[in-house]
Automatic annotation (TrEMBL), chain B:
Keywords: Membrane, Transmembrane, Transmembrane helix. It holds the Pfam family ABC2_membrane_6. The keyword Iron-sulfur does not apply. This is ABC-2 family transporter protein. InterPro entries: ABC-2_transporter-like. The keyword Acyltransferase does not apply. The chain crosses the membrane at residues 25-47, 59-79, 116-136, 148-174, 200-219, 231-249.
Length: 325, 261
């Protein structure tokens, strides 16, 4: 395996105008502009091997998108270095741009009023594909994404999900080696999210392309990304396997009990999350799990008992609300 | 020439997009025809009082009007809608996609939108030009014809460069549509030869907004009164403006990416 992305202490800070509320403040700011520096990304270092699928996690404004924008050449960093496929991204060398693609969930590159296929044709010319290459890749994508009858429809007549499938296809016609996907499933319904997810997985397996993905939906990251990078306030909090993230940050375990008869108060065993009839869910500190489980089995008539990690969403939420662990 | 292939593709897309609204072509023709009629009526009113206007004879002025519409149409077919779209893309963030493409961003931005039906302006403008030449049996030889085409080319380059400079301002001041309004107001003044305006306006129309070079100079060329030096000057200025707009655009892109250099 070879390293395709190498980032070293990459930073980006913006200078933004500061202005108080009200008319007076806005008039003052016309003359005397106060500014403040916002550090969107602070000295992030990581490297990505060819063929990896890496998920970027973080709340809004954490710096995920800024990082992707720097790696795809849209933004110039204020510090540090990055090398993507051996290129400095922000030089926007054409040979570099031909090998990457960027998909942004909330934006569109297809032309609104004309059939999808004509927007594809534009990309064929921009990426200088031969007719045969284009035909071949188009057929492949049409099959994988089930685009069939969508191609001849004007983009404005497509549903959000259909449009997103077409956006993704348009972004992949040139067979990029690196995919930057920024919230690709934003606003899609669950089944369409799953569809797109499966596609990215297939595409990665088939072509060996490297995928960097940001998403709000944990399900995306869980399903797709063996490796996750957690960014918070522009800093890298965690870089590793998803399972390790859970192990590292989850201080508690969840116990799901099925009892023979409905029980009185269970709070002596741990924090009761829910209790309905004979079924109860408890939360206990990780280090006490064995001891609490033993006690429950001893003191109660248990039909079934299940120990699990809390949902990843919750863990992530804890990580972010605590800042650093 | 990839730019040329892109041009072809975008024209095809523009044609496809607007072919659905064929009736728009008739409307456009009607609108342009009406606009031209009112301008020609103004000329007729003027020449019912006098024989020449600032040294221009009626037929020459009609030719000028023709050129005015040819240039107007050319701007409206591609330059104006494309750059207007570019400004919207800056606001919505869709411009990011343009920057990830392996092609010159300025070329992509300049071609992105085509309003095919505005060719009606070019068509009617050409008709007015030809009719005025034929009716007054103006002698347009190879020399005048060549001079005219050169002058028109120089004017087109200048107007394009001027638009690029205006559009580039969007990197700094998100909303520049108002500045475009100023261009249109100034361009309307180009329906008359700039020589008839008072000095300050004449200079503004020559050096600030290149209306003089886009309309008046080609009209002078076709009526055989453009000197070689003024033509050379126009070509030189076109090169300078184009180079400047290119440089300014690059500065704008660097600003957009947040590069400090």
């Amino acid at each position: 395996m070879s390293t395709v992305i190498e980032i070293d202490r990459l930073s980006k800070s913006y200078v933004v105008p500061v202005r108080g509320a009200g008319v007076r403040a806005s008039i003052v700011s016309l003359v005397k502009r106060k500014t403040r520096t916002v550090e969107a990304v602070k000295e992030i270092s990581l490297s990505v091997e060819a063929g990896e699928v890496v998920g970027f996690l973080g709340p809004n404004g954490a710096g995920k998108t800024t990082t992707l924008k720097m790696l795809s050449g849209l933004l110039h960093p204020t510090g540090g270095t990055a090398s993507v496929l051996g290129f400095e991204p922000w030089k926007r060398n054409n040979d570099f741009l031909r090998q990457i693609t960027l998909v942004m969930g909330q934006r569109n590159q297809l032309i609104w009023d004309i059939p999808v296929i004509d927007s594809f044709d534009r990309n064929r010319v921009i990426y200088r594909l031969t007719r045969e290459e284009y035909r071949e890749r188009l057929d492949e994508l049409v099959e994988l994404l089930e685009l069939g009858e969508l191609l001849s429809k004007p983009v404005r007549n497509l549903s959000l999900g259909e449009r997103m499938k077409c956006e993704v296809a348009a972004a992949l016609l040139h067979h990029p080696r690196i995919l930057f996907l920024d919230e690709p499933t934003l606003g899609l319904d669950v089944s369409m999210q799953r569809r797109l997810r499966t596609f990215v997985e297939q595409y990665n397996k088939r072509t060996g392309a490297t995928v960097l993905l940001t998403s709000h939906y944990m399900a995306d990251v869980e399903a797709l990304c063996p490796r996750v990078v957690v960014i918070h306030h522009g800093e890298l909090l965690f870089d590793g396997k998803l399972a390790d993230l859970v192990r590292k940050f989850s201080a508690q375990k969840t116990l799901v009990l099925e009892l023979e008869e409905s029980q009185e108060d269970l709070s002596r065993f741990g924090q009761v999350v829910s209790q309905e009839g004979s079924r109860a869910t408890l939360r206990v500190p990780k280090q006490d799990t064995a001891e609490v489980t033993a006690r429950i089995l001893r003191e109660l008539k248990v039909q079934d008992l299940n120990v699990a990690d809390p949902p990843i969403d919750e863990i992530i939420d804890q990580v972010f609300s605590r800042g650093m662990a | 020439m990839n730019a040329l292939r892109l041009l072809v593709v975008y024209f095809r897309i523009g044609l496809l997009g607007e072919a659905q609204y064929r009736v728009n072509f008739l409307f456009q023709l009607f609108e342009t025809g009406l606009g031209m009629a009112s301008v020609l009526a103004a000329i007729w009113v003027v020449f019912s009082q006098t024989d020449t206007l600032g040294g221009w004879k009626p037929a020459e002025l009609t030719a000028l009007i023709g050129i005015y519409f040819i240039v107007l149409g050319s701007i409206n077919v591609m330059v104006a809608p494309s750059l207007q779209k570019f400004m919207e893309d800056i606001v919505t963030g869709n411009f990011d996609y343009t920057l990830t493409k392996p092609a010159d961003a300025q070329v992509l931005v300049s071609l992105s939108e085509v309003r095919i039906w505005r060719l009606a302006d070019v068509l009617l403008g050409a008709v007015a030009l030809v009719v005025s030449i034929v009716r007054e049996s103006m002698v347009v030889g190879w020399v005048e014809g060549g001079k005219f085409l050169l002058a028109l080319l120089a004017g087109a380059v200048m107007v394009y460069s001027f638009w690029i400079v205006l559009a580039t301002l969007a990197f700094w001041f998100i909303r520049v549509e108002n500045i475009l309004q100023i261009f249109w107001a100034m361009y309307t003044a180009g329906r008359w030869p700039v020589g008839i305006y008072p000095g300050w306006l004449k200079w503004t129309l020559t050096l600030v907004v290149p209306v003089a070079f886009a309309v008046t100079v080609p009209a002078e060329a076709v009526s055989g009164r453009a000197s070689g030096t003024s033509l050379l000057g126009a070509l030189g200025l076109a090169c300078v403006l184009f180079a400047f707009s290119r440089w300014f655009w690059r500065v704008g892109i660097r600003k957009y990416a947040g590069a400090s250099s």
